[in-house]
């Protein structure tokens, strides 16, 4: 196990030896050994950096190592299926997001798990909004100009996403359907390699979280033509929403912590408190804000209902995008 982990993980060293929150008698109910957090994407994307940020602060607070294990593939179901099969003791968790829990149930004909029944959904972290980025050399500034170019050059523009079935893929295909354009989808195993190819000129455009790419905007390495948020985001207020430009596309990239089904209530409560305490730290809030992750307090029960509800919220978008497995 450790050999496999050493190839895939970054070990976050623990520091203080403090008791876990929610203890009745001073004896820790969680964590009692290193905790592994699986991430459904490769290193460098939002799920990965948020997992590492929370893992670092929880490690320092709780005195146990938090190991980040990147297991990309199969629309996030690879990592989720691993977590489903682990012991329900809180020491194997998933950095949950849209891909394995919201999109995959509609995208795939056969799922290796039930999103609601096979997991304990513990803590909601927050959400961020994706947008469309294009090469500055294209001279495109607005969504209309992008659509006009795509119609003038059908099949010539290529857009990158963080993988088939990802929020960026669903957004890209929904835009194509609604605008009536032919832009070629190039899936990657995560956002980071897509951006590398964008910078190398391989891609005409890509979809990713807007706040996370503000440095590229400031350096004029990319032009953001729209954000799929209900209103402009504070990190890049100059970027108009799709709605403002006549395209009613609003998608939320949510993040949370989930574990296998059947986790004991005291363990669930301890993890929820640890995540909440970490998120409440000013330093963590500042980092999340810089990445465009908007916090929203949510109980474990509310988070569980949210995960279940999101499947139905997204189902028509995924069908419209034609992202279902054939």
TrEMBL record:
<dbReference type="InterPro" id="IPR005064">
    <property type="entry name" value="BUG"/>
</dbReference>
<dbReference type="InterPro" id="IPR042100">
    <property type="entry name" value="Bug_dom1"/>
</dbReference>
<keyword id="KW-0732">Signal</keyword>
<feature type="signal peptide">
    <location>
        <begin position="1"/>
        <end position="24"/>
    </location>
</feature>
<protein>
    <submittedName>
        <fullName>Tripartite tricarboxylate transporter substrate binding protein</fullName>
    </submittedName>
</protein>
<dbReference type="Pfam" id="PF03401">
    <property type="entry name" value="TctC"/>
</dbReference>
<comment type="similarity">
    <text>Belongs to the UPF0065 (bug) family.</text>
</comment>
